[in-house]
User: What shape does this take?
Amino acid sequence: MGVTPAGYCGWIGKHKGFEMRLLRFFAGDGRVHLGLRQGEEVLDATVAATQLWNEDWTTPLTLIAAGQSGLDRLAQLAAQVASDARLRQEVMHPYPGLRLDAPLRDSPKLLALAGNYRKHVTESGYAEVKESAAITPQVFSKPVSTAINAPGAPVRLHPENVFVDWEIELAVIIGRRGRNIPSSEAMSYVFGYSILNDISERKFNSRMPNREIRETDPFFDWLMGKWFDGSAPFGPEIVSADEIADPHNLSIRLWVNDQLMQDANTSEMIFRIPEVVSYISGVMTIEPGDILSMGTPAGVGMARGVSLSPGDVMRGEIEGLGVLETPVVAG
Assistant: This one.
């Protein structure tokens, strides 16, 4: 793993004595506010920045895009609140009980990997990926504005759904703009990490009567099955890179109705973050706030013959990144 160099991104959190765990929550004024979680409390950065500096902070994207200066401002804000008892009483809220929104909704791109864990590849019915195989990452996109879903918000099953599945994944949040990035420098482009559940419709169009299957239809059915509204539960927060010692050695698990379905470690990924960042940036410019979802391990519903149904509850957990809980309801 590369190391985030001093002078950029998450190291400022520990350097200044503040955790950098960014979230967004529904506040009493009916708006979604930007929050900085500190243990079991959340600093309302939207209210604090307005009162102290007359600045409107509602999304972490501005801070992410500002790089080091954005994190300096966030640390400065936290320090001023900590030293002002009156303001602290007004802007600090208990974390338990807050209704959260997705930590980032204005991401330029949401790109995801298919087949990035060997056991998931074989459970999906494909040939085993050999350690020595010369292969490339398989990357697809999900629509940001309609797919991203809040922590705790339901996945709604639509009339077109036939077999809906879960896929817990490590989400990488990009912090800098770049193109043609060498693997050796790629980790310096990472702002932080979160959790994403890549909800997938596995049998899209299978109910269509008298359908003539063309050669490429199975691929496009699979791809369209990734694009349903609300199919990317995301959060609960963005954890800055400095808080995670090694993103390639994290426990990653998912339960459905308290039954453990996925139980793996990110060390099992075929392509690691530096390789993926380098590969994607050779095709397109990566931008601050881009989300790269790193693929799912074995244990999905399709391999078990289990489809999600109304009333089910998914609980995804990645070590150090929190818990992402998602109920399933009828559309």
Observations:
- Residues 68-82 form the longest helix (15 residues).
- Confidence is low (pLDDT under 50) at residues 1-13.
- The radius of gyration is 20 Å.
- The CA atoms of residues 162 and 203 lie 6 Å apart.
